[in-house]
Amino acid sequence: MSPREDVATEPLPSTDGYRQPDVDVPALSALLDGKYADVRRLARDNLVAHADLLTDAETLDWTAYRERVKDVVLALAQTGQTGFGFAEAYGGGGDIGASVAAFETLAFGDLSVMVKVGVQFGLFGGAIAQLGTKRHHDAYLRDIASGALLGCFAMTETGHGSNVQALQTIARYDPATEEFVITTPDDAARKDYIGNAALHAELAVVFAQLEVAGEQHGVHAFVVPLRRDGEVLPGVRIGDCGAKIGLNGVDNGRIWFDNVRVPRAALLNQFADVSAEGIYSSPIENPNRRFFTMLGTLVQGRVSVGGAGINASKVALTVAVRYADRRRQFSIDDSAQEQLLLDYGQHQRRLLPLLAHTYALHFAQEVLTEQLHAVFSAPPDNPADEHTRRELESRAAGTKALGTWHASRTIQECREACGGAGYLSANRFAALRADTDVFTTFEGDNHVLLQLVAKGLLTDYAGAFEDLDQLEMVRMVTGMAVETILEKTAVHTLFERIRDALPGGDQWDSEAGLLDSRYHQAMLRFREEHQLSGVARRLKSATGSGLSSGEAFSRVQPHVMALAHSHVERLVLDAFVDKYRALPDGDLKATIGLLCDLHALSVIEADRGWFIEHGRLSVARSKAITRQVDDLCRKVRPIAVDLVDAFGVPREMLRAEELLG
Amino acid sequence: MSPREDVATEPLPSTDGYRQPDVDVPALSALLDGKYADVRRLARDNLVAHADLLTDAETLDWTAYRERVKDVVLALAQTGQTGFGFAEAYGGGGDIGASVAAFETLAFGDLSVMVKVGVQFGLFGGAIAQLGTKRHHDAYLRDIASGALLGCFAMTETGHGSNVQALQTIARYDPATEEFVITTPDDAARKDYIGNAALHAELAVVFAQLEVAGEQHGVHAFVVPLRRDGEVLPGVRIGDCGAKIGLNGVDNGRIWFDNVRVPRAALLNQFADVSAEGIYSSPIENPNRRFFTMLGTLVQGRVSVGGAGINASKVALTVAVRYADRRRQFSIDDSAQEQLLLDYGQHQRRLLPLLAHTYALHFAQEVLTEQLHAVFSAPPDNPADEHTRRELESRAAGTKALGTWHASRTIQECREACGGAGYLSANRFAALRADTDVFTTFEGDNHVLLQLVAKGLLTDYAGAFEDLDQLEMVRMVTGMAVETILEKTAVHTLFERIRDALPGGDQWDSEAGLLDSRYHQAMLRFREEHQLSGVARRLKSATGSGLSSGEAFSRVQPHVMALAHSHVERLVLDAFVDKYRALPDGDLKATIGLLCDLHALSVIEADRGWFIEHGRLSVARSKAITRQVDDLCRKVRPIAVDLVDAFGVPREMLRAEELLG
Fold this sequence. Notes:
The structure is a homodimer of 661-residue chains. The first copy, chain A, is α+β, with helices and mostly antiparallel strands.
C-alpha cells in the first residue's frame, strides 16, 4: 500500500514557477541510446525484420518454435549483431560495450531468441574466449561467432546452482592416455537447465572438479563434444527439461557423462594447466582466488541479463502508459465523458515511479557497461587491477539483482494496469512475464548475488579496520574464505564529503531542499554506511553469543541483504544524478531532473520507516516527501507518453493493437 | 527490502519459557476445514481422481485441453460437488457455504476447471437463480446444475469492465411482438473475455441497457440463446479471445448481437419487469439502488475468487516450504554438510510471514463465507437487512482484493525460492502463476473493489455526521450517487473500546505487550479510523480548493485506497484473533497464536513508517517489532512443514517429484 499521511489541511504543493518541459523525443532517445546508437539501431531493425516471431510463438508447437528460434538466432549472427564481443581476428566486432548494447536491445522482442543468443555467443563463446587460450580460440571462435558451431555452457547441476564451488561432476586426468575422464557420479551431479543442450549444442563447456593424481584442484572448465551431425555421442546422455514457465523456444536440457574421455587440450587453460605427465600448475596460487578469478571473467553474462530486465520493463511500460492515456473508465463529475486512467492519482502512483526507476536503472546500466568495457578492453600489458575487477563484479551482481526484480515488478504492475485486456497474449504481457521470470534466478540467484555484494563491502570494511576478529566474521558471512587483498575504500569518506556539500552542516538532513539531488545522495549514503557498520557490529556480537556459526549467520543474514540492497540503490542514484548534472541546461535536463527527483524520493519514501528510525528523517519531512512524490507524479503525467516513446521500442514489438489503437 | 535496524548490541530476544508446540496435523487440518470438512473431502477426492489433468494440460493442444476441461467439469457435476449452491428442488445441495467450500478447494488443482465451474454454476447459474424468478428457475436450473445446459455470463464489454453501469449493449422492448431486441452498437460494446462463450455455452445471461418506449432504465439481465446443437444462432457473432497468460482450458470469447430478438420472459425479472404493453415496473424505485441490489446478489463470485486465491497460495507454500526443508546449499562453517535453505534467516523471512498471512486470510475467508451463507439462507419472510448486505458486499470485495494479491505475491516468492527448478512446469508454479494472475482483475478489479470498500466506510462516516457537505464529497469519491440509507456505525466507538481494554490508558501503544493481540488489533483500528477521518477532511479541503472534481478526486484517491486496505487488514486480523481466542488452551492454540502474532506484527512492520509518522509507534518499539518478527520466524521454522501439511493439499496436486522427493 502506498504510504499516506492524513493531515488534510496542509497546502497543496506549490507549482509556482514550474514550467512543464517540452520533450524532444528524438533527443531523449539519443541520450538513452548513448554511444551505441548505431548498434541499437541495427538490433531494432533486426527485431522488426523478425517481428512475426512474436505471434508465431503462440501458434507453433514446441518443436517448431525451438527450430524457429534457432533459425532467427543464426540469421542475427549473419548481420553481425551477435558477434560484437569477439575479436576482429575471429570475425567479431571487438567491442564489448557494443555486444551488451546489442544484446539488451533484443529484450524488446522474443526473449527465447535473446536467451539463446546469450547462451551461444555470451556464455558458451565467452567461456571459450575468456577461459581458453589461443589453441581454443583458433579452433572454435570463428565458427562460434558465425553460428556454424553451436554450444552450451554446462555449469549448473541439479544439486548445486548457487554454490558453484561444490559442483560434483568429476574430470580425472589419466596420464596414460593424456586425457581427462568426465564423469557424472550421481543424478544430483547431472548438468541441469542447460540452454541449447536438449537439441542444438554440438559442444559443451563443462565445469567439473579437476582431479590429478588423486589430488583435487577445484572447479575447472573443459570443452566436451556432445553431438556429431546431431547425434549424441557415446557416453553422453541428454534429457529434455520439458515445459517451463516461459522461454520455451530455448531447448534446456540435462546432461550425464559416463566416463567421457577428452584430450588434455580440452582443458580451458587460461588460469591453470595440466602437463602431459600430470603436473598441475597455475599462475594463481590460492585455489579460492583462482576460482573467483575464473568466474569473474564471465561477468558479462550478469551485465547482459540485468540490461535485458531493464529493457523488458520498457516494453511493458510503453504499453501500459500509452493505454492509460487512451482508456477511459468512470466519469468523476456529471459529465458524460469518462476519465482517462492516467488522470487518476492512484494510476499515476502505480506507473510513474516505475517509469522513473526504469530511467535510473538504464543510466546505471550504462555506467556498468562502460566499466565492463574498460576492464575487458584494457591492453594486456596494462590490465585492470584486482580492485577494479572486484568493483565491476559487485556492481554487475547488484545491478542484475535490482534490474531483474524491477522487471518482474514492473511487468506485473503494467499487466494489472491493463486489466482483462492485459491478460490476453496478444497484448504482450503473457510472454514478457513468463519469459523474464527466471531472470531473477539465472546468471546468479538474486539473493545470492546480493550476498556477494555485501561480501565485497564487508571485506573492504574489515580491511579498513585491519582487525583479525572482523575478518573472521566476514569469513563467516560470506561462507567462504576471504581474500587477503583488503584495502581502504572511499566508503567512509563519502558521507563526510556529502555532508560538507550540503547546507546545514549536521542539520543537512532537515535543512536541505527536498528536490536537492545532493540531499537524495546523502540520504542513501547515510543509510548504506550505517547499515555497513551495523552489520559488522552484529557479526561481532553474534560470534560472541555462543550460537553456532550457522545460526549466527542466519540471524545476521537479513541485515546483510538490506545492506547490499542499499548499496546498489545508492550506485543507481549516483549514476542517474551524474547523468543529470552533466547535461547542459534546457528542457532535456529539466525532464531528466523531474525523473531523477521522482526516482530518488520514491526510493526514500519506500524505506522511510528506516530513515525515521535512524534519526535522519523527521515525521514532518517524511510526510512532505510523500506529498512531493504525488506532485512529481502529476508533473510527469503530461509528458509520460513522450517518456515511454523515447525508449524507442519498435511499434511492431508492442503488438497490443486493440490496447494501443 | 526487509526493514532492518542496526543497533548490534541489543540482547537477542529471550526464548525463556518458550516451549515449541507439538503440532497435531490432523487436528489442525480439521480446524482449517471447519464445518465443511466433508465437502472439502469430496472435492479433494475428485481432484485426485482427475490428477492426470495437471500433466495433460502441458501436452494437450489448445482444443483438446478445452474439451478435456469441459469433460472434467461435467464429471464433477455428476458427483454433486458443483451443485451445492442450487436449491434441492432443482437437484442442488441447498447450501451456499458448502458451495464456496467446494469451489475454493478446486484451487488446489487445475484452475481452468475451477474457473469453468465458476462460470457455469456460479456466474451463469447464480445469475439465473438470483436475478430470475420461478419461470426461469423451472426452465433452466435443473439442467444447469447437472451440466446438461451450459451457459455464460455476458457482462463485461471491451469498452467497459469496471464501470458496469456504463455498458453499451442495448435491449430495446418491442411491444408489437412482445420481444426484447438485443443489439451491440459498436465494437467497444461487444461482450469480451466471456468464459464458456467461445465454444460451449448454449445460453447467455446478457447484461444490457434496457430501453422501453424510448426511456432508459439502466442495466438489466436477459437470457439469450447463443447456440443450438453447437451451431451459433443467427444474429449472434462469436469470436475467440485466443491465447491468454493462463487459464487456457477456458474458452473465453467475444459476442456481438445484431438485433437478436428474445421473448419478454427472457428478462430476469426478480427486481424489475416490463409488462406486455411496455410498462416498466420495479419494487425498487431508485435506479441506482436497483442496480446495486441486482449486482449485490452476485456477490458469491467475489467470495469464491478470494477463497481460490488463498487456496492457490497454499499449494505454492506447500511446495516451497517442503523444498526448503530438504534442499541444502552452501556450508556455513567448515563442515562438509551444507545448510538447509529453511535454516537461513532470509529464507525464513521470505516464506514464513506469507505462511502466517495465508492462515489469517483462511480464517477471514471462513467468516466471510459464514456471512454469505447467513444472508443467502435467510428465510424469505425475514431477509437480511440492507446494512448486513452492504457489509457483506464490502467484506467480499476487500477479502477478494487482499486474497488475490496475496496469491500473486506468494506464488511468485515461492517460485523464486525454488530457484531454477521452480521454473520448470513439472514443479507446479508455471500453472499456478499463470492461471491465478487474472484473479486480481476479474470479478472486479482489485483497485476498483477497494474503492467500493472505501465508499462504504465514507458513506457510514458521512451518515454519522449528517452533514450534507460531507455527503457531497462522498458522492465525488464514489463517482456515483450515494444511497441515502446512512447510519451511524460502530467504527468510532471501536477504538475507544480497545483502548479501554488495554493497560496504559492513553499510553496503550507504548505499554502493551508486543505479543498482546489486543495491541495488534488496537494498532490496526487506530490506523483505520485515523485514515477514515483524514480522507473525509481531505475531501472537504479539496472541494474548496478550486480544483476540478476530477483533479480533486485524483489527489485524494491514493488515500482512499490506503484507507480501504487498512480496513480490510483490520477485518482479517480480527477474524484470526477471534479464531485464536475461541480455541481451548493447548498446543493447537499455541500454534495458532504463534501464527497470529507473526501475521499481526509483520503487517504492522510493513507499515511502520505510517505508525511512526502518526505517533503510535516509537522508534525503539518499531525496532523491537522487527526483532520479534525475526524471532517468531525462528519459532515457526521447526513446525513449518507441519503447518503446510495441515493445508491438506493432496500429494497428487503438488507434482514436483524432484523437488519434494
